[in-house]
Amino acid sequence: MEVKKETWLHEFTERVSPLRISLPEGLLLGVITGLGYFSAYLSEVGYKAYFHLPSMYADISVNTLILSVSIIVLICLLGILSLQVPWIHQYGRFVFPLLIPLSLWFVTSVKMGFFFDWEHPYKWWGLCLFNVAAIGVLFECLHRRRLLAGALVLVVLVVITARISGELVAENQQWYLVAKRPQPVVVVDTYKDALIVAPINLQKRTIQPRYQLIDAKGEPDQALSFQPMRVGPLRVENR
């Protein structure tokens, strides 16, 4: 009789789960992908919320999705290594709560061009402290072989971090596309094939929350001429 070879994931779940729950590889990949989509969506919602745009205009870009999934895969990979490799299992719960938040901070900084507006520093410090605490709890759960509790902590970590980081990117973004027509307008976001523009005060670096959708594939005679300008960080009037 042929003996069925156990997969690596089955062996992994048998070792770490106190409830002995076996997860197929397809389900695990589906959960990671779904969580990546959800975190990318929350990041877009946070970005648009800063500009008073409704969540119905949240449009997930490929770059945001790849970035979100990559971060989740990295955390999951480190979690697996902390369970499989003895020295990582011993010291990972002390190292990763500092290493992973620094990595997240670096990735967010790249999106903002390493510019930080410290007008509201409590958001930065609050997010950093939350990440350190949540990742510390996550790897402590893995150290104690509590896989389900660790998965719950990971979901909460991803959801809150994605939502807040999206708003932080909007608060600190510097470069925008600006059209200098009689009333200057700035592109604050995109939705499908349309540009979302708003009137801008270049001196005060503020925008009015009166948005228009301009078809990016419109007729040439109706097109606006945009140029990249360093006009941020922008503030929304009456905010």
From TrEMBL:
Transmembrane segments: 21-40, 60-83, 95-116, 122-139, 146-164
UniProt keyword list: Membrane, Transmembrane, Transmembrane helix
Domain of life per record: Bacteria
Name of the featured protein: Uncharacterized protein
Source species: Polycladomyces abyssicola
